[in-house]
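Need a sequence for this fold. Nothing fancy.
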């Protein structure tokens, strides 16, 4: 059996590989930003895309939160 593998790109960068299996796609992250998705099974390529967007959105919102400081 030949295994189908696909490079997964997000924001014009390769972020991992999706391997087609009988019940969906296994995602292997190559970008540490998406490590939490590494090894997860997805029903479709579209569902991988949705999860990448969610992770990116969440990490961006945390990264750009202004730090408050109070002067005495």
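Here you go.
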């Amino acid at each position: 059996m030949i295994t189908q593998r696909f490079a997964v790109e997000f924001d014009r960068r390769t972020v991992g590989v999706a391997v087609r299996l009988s019940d969906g796609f296994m995602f292997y992250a190559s970008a540490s930003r998406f490590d939490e998705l590494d090894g997860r099974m997805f029903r479709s390529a579209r569902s991988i895309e949705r999860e990448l967007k969610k992770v990116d959105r969440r990490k961006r919102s945390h990264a750009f939160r202004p730090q408050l400081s109070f002067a005495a």
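For context: The longest helix spans residues 45-63.
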